[in-house]
From TrEMBL:
Name of protein: Oxidoreductase
Keyword Iron: yes
InterPro entries recorded: Cbr1-like_FAD-bd_dom, FAD-bd_FR_type, FNR_nucleotide-bd, MRET, OxRdtase_FAD/NAD-bd, Riboflavin_synthase-like_b-brl
SUPFAM superfamilies named in the record: Ferredoxin reductase-like, C-terminal NADP-linked domain (SSF52343), Riboflavin synthase domain-like (SSF63380)
GO molecular function: 2 iron, 2 sulfur cluster binding; oxidoreductase activity
Highest taxon, organism lineage: Bacteria
Domain FAD-binding FR-type as annotated: residue spans: 16-116
Cofactor: FAD
Organism: Jiangella asiatica
Pfam families cross-referenced by the UniProt entry: FAD_binding_6 (PF00970), NAD_binding_1 (PF00175)
Keyword line: 2Fe-2S, Iron, Iron-sulfur, Metal-binding
PANTHER family: NADH OXIDOREDUCTASE HCR, PROTEIN RFBI
Length: 252
């Protein structure tokens, strides 16, 4: 499900376009994901939550395009976090084959509803991520901090193990009175972890998220199954469909 957002305030329009990106750095982000740092001199900037389409072209002309959220962008440096799906067409190439100096075609910035803008609302914000779905939510938390916005932000982040946390250091650095992270470890927790290990449930979601009566704006991102399951629980807990925005990365 994906609810309609309230109309967003007017902002400088950044028209999507094709850009040639040069890979500056590719580094392991988790055991099955990389962080790609791209140099895109023509990048117009982007709002937190937007994505790009990456288009690959084979020597025989065959093309494949997939969407990837922007984790951060700063003066033409665009950072993506890409998880490898073992039977996937595009992600194994991006994770295993791409090297610094390679050129990629990207189209963006894209997306007009799964966005967080500073000053948009003083209602609290609840972010809920599954795995690589944290990428656009990290962008929102970073934008929130950069704007010194005092809106309360909370992130519930479901990952397999501590090693599977994307942007671990960045999230730790962002944490403070107006931004907290609650981890849900589905397979293995860090030493000394006091909580339980296992999948997010309706009850654990209820206990770690902002209560419905506080009317949080909620951004959910992850696999299709994760996003749909969480959105259904949120409705069940009493949140309004108008307040729930989902970004589904695909899969079942
Ligand atoms: C708006 C948007 C933003 C996205 N941002 C990111 C991002 O920041 N990082 C990232 O890693 N991915 C992101 N994705 C997912 C990405 O676009 C691709 O779908 C993913 O990389 C798989 O592509 P592939 O070619 O490797 O797999 P495909 O060849 O397309 O699919 C292979 C198999 O995997 C299944 N599958 C596809 N996607 C998923 C999934 N997400 N989870 C589980 N199974 C899946 C398919 O159903 C199929 O069975 C985003 C998707 C969208 C729509």
């Amino acid at each position: 499900m994906s609810a309609q957002a309230a109309p967003l305030p007017r902002t400088r329009h950044r028209r999507p376009a094709w850009h040639v990106a040069t890979v500056v750095e590719t580094r392991p982000e988790t055991p099955n994901a990389v962080r790609l740092v791209l140099d895109v001199p023509t990048w117009p900037g982007n709002e937190a939550g937007t994505h790009v389409d990456v288009r690959l072209t084979a020597p025989d002309g065959y093309q494949a395009t997939r969407s990837y959220s922007v984790a951060t962008s700063d003066r033409g440096r665009v950072v993506l976090g890409i998880e490898e799906l073992p039977d996937g067409e595009v992600s194994p190439f991006l994770v295993r084959e791409v090297r610094a100096g390679d050129k990629l075609e990207i189209h963006g910035p894209l997306g007009s509803y799964f966005l967080w803008r500073p000053g948009q609302s003083n209602r609290p914000v609840q972010l809920i991520a599954g795995g690589s779905g944290v990428v656009p939510l990290h962008a929102m938390a970073a934008a929130h901090a950069a704007a010194s916005d005092s809106t309360l932000f909370r992130l519930v982040y479901s990952v397999r193990t501590p090693a599977h946390v994307y942007f671990r250091d960045e999230l730790a650095a962002l944490a403070g009175p107006s931004f907290t992270v609650d981890y849900v470890y589905t397979r293995q927790a860090p030493p000394g972890w006091g909580g339980t290990v296992g999948r997010l449930t309706r009850d654990s979601l209820a206990s770690t998220t902002i209560a419905p009566h506080e009317r949080p704006r909620i951004f959910v991102c992850g696999s299709t199954r994760f996003a749909e399951t969480v959105a259904a629980w949120l409705l069940d807990l009493g949140h309004s469909a108008r307040d729930i925005l989902t970004e589904r990365y695909g899969g079942k």
